[in-house]
């Protein structure tokens, strides 16, 4: 299996179609038509026999933890594997590769909204226990119906997050579509 990191603008039509099919099968939506942020996303694909069999993407976000600590965050979405290839560890391999790549790119934190908390916990992701806020213009909104998981990539973030409690907060900018 081969891994490739490709910016959305550099995906060819065949790759775009294969990613759309994977995402539609897994999430019942075509990500290309859903959200504007997809145009600036970066994709990680796993290729086997010239076919994309597993996929994840990330977008850049700034998280503010504890009201003052700004953190460059790779927000991970659309993690999926071809239905015929599930159960073979491909998504786990893809996410391990992603963590390594993001660490080398200088990100301090990765985050995602999980479909399967147990799966991500096995890979070392941690549920965020505090409150989540979205800032839009000059207003800040509590988004208590959302759940995210974190994977710290830097020593600074590992130390910071090890001391977080349910009283801590994460805030990020509003974006079109899914907030988290």
Annotated CATH homologous superfamily: Gcn5-related N-acetyltransferase (GNAT)
How many individual helices? Answer: 5
From the alpha-carbon coordinates, what is the Rg to the nearest angstrom? 16 Å
Q: Sheet with the most strands? A: 10 strands, mixed
Describe the structure.
The structure is a single chain. By secondary structure, this protein is α+β, with helices and mostly antiparallel strands. The protein has a single domain, classed as Gcn5-related N-acetyltransferase (GNAT) (Aminopeptidase). It contains 5 helices and 10 strands, in the order βααβββαβαββββαβ. The protein has helices spanning 13-27, 31-34, 90-104, 117-122, 155-162, and strands spanning 2-7, 42-48, 51-65, 69-81, 109-112, 126-127, 131-136, 139-142, 149-152, 169-173. Strands 1, 2, 3, 4, 5, 6, 7, 8, 9 and 10 form a 10-stranded mixed sheet that branches. A hairpin with a 2-residue loop joins β7 (131-136) and β8. The longest helix is centred in the N-terminal third of the chain and has 15 residues, at 13-27. The two termini are 30 Å apart.
